[in-house]
Amino acid sequence: MDLAEKLEILADSAKYDVACTSSGVDRPGRHGALGSSAAAGICHAFTADGRCVSLLKVLYSNVCSYDCSYCVNRRSNDRPRATFTPRELAELTIGFYRRNYIEGLFLSSAVLGTPDRTMELMIEALRILREEYHFNGYIHAKTIPGADPMLVEKIGRLADRLSVNIELPSETSLTTLAPDKKKTAILRPMGQIAVQSAQSKKEMVLYRGAQPFAPAGQSTQMIIGATPETDRHIMDLTEGLYRKYSLKRVFYSAYLPVVEDRRLPALHTAPPLLREHRLYQADWLLRYYHFSARELLTEDEPNFDPYLDPKCTWAVRHPEFFPVEVNTASRAELLRVPGIGPKSALRIVEARRVQSLGMAELKRIGVVLKRAQYFITCKGKAAARGSRAEIAGALLDPKAFSVGMQQLSLDDFVPKALPDAAPAVQRLEAHGMAADVAARTVRQEALQCLTKRM
């Protein structure tokens, strides 16, 4: 098998891993080295068809000794297999960099034999890049659960960001679908990375020659929709991971059925893209808006509303908190208002030091007045008044009713529900209703339900 065939197989095998970011490292180029890293981040990946992108996203090997039911690379699945050698991967990365295809590397792997053996091969590839080719660009490496702590430390000295995929939201699901993986084997390297990363930051301040350890921190990924856990369970887990392990990001991957298994959704099941979107929105609220997981979801409502974003859902549940006076409210209170984000909240706090703010000033600041106007007062006066139906219409998320056009021929177009539209829209379309009619029908029902709740 030549290198191009290996690349095609292993780049395709890596496409299901969404935990691919590079923010957090700002390392300028230096004499005698190749590349640099920008803190602004790199969020793209190389595809096997030769397009110019930013990260080479690839597996070291897709030959796996594990048999995880949800994974396309599982041992029992019949698919083409390939494995790089350390030097092949290093030379491939440098070759792409010199052609200006990429700025960095995202490296993961199936478990080739044992976790330790897999990590040793990945470390050797990164060593060649860093020490022989003097590659100074960004590297994100996946840590294989169950590997020796010494290997985790070695790869942390070579990579900018590490990640350990938690895979499934509960130990029960992990035991059922991935019997070769253990919760403790996943959490142990997470804890080690958190401790060593914090220690490394202190050493970098004290000692000039200190070597950084995973300076961009760590992240993880969990698969959504393959198992029956609620959104509340997932957000509780996410909040715990951020607090205990100081993760930079938790990524959510909507399960795409790729293998036939009675314990998993059927192959024709659409991936829950809208649910994934709601989880990312809630994750943002945890990290930047100072919400807690238990504020966003309750025992009575353990899953996010498909028609409202999580912040609007919270606002509808807590009418006693509103209206908020923009000229006196704290930044924390402003962040609870639909339509006001972290940047606009900070701008409001700064601007009101020199003047009283009205609707015109809020618009210039960047507040989304379509939503915010019903939850605020300016100088003691209500910014806007509307009926419950008008307010409900402003709060509904258009993404839940998104419809595009499918071209059947040069002059024949039909509406089609987009993949991340609400499940109800997709079900009606599957039963023969036109997509645009289905979207209007579901929106009208959602509007009536929300109006009654308010």
UniProtKB/TrEMBL annotation:
Transmembrane annotation, as ranges: none
Protein's UniProt keywords contain Repeat: no
Pfam families assigned to the protein according to its UniProt record, in alphabetical order: HHH_3
One of the record's GO molecular function terms: iron-sulfur cluster binding
Helix-hairpin-helix DNA-binding motif class domain: residues covered: 332-351
Keywords assigned by UniProt, alphabetized: Iron, Iron-sulfur, Metal-binding, S-adenosyl-L-methionine
Biological process terms in GO annotation: DNA repair
Iron found in the keyword field: yes
Protein name: Putative DNA modification/repair radical SAM protein
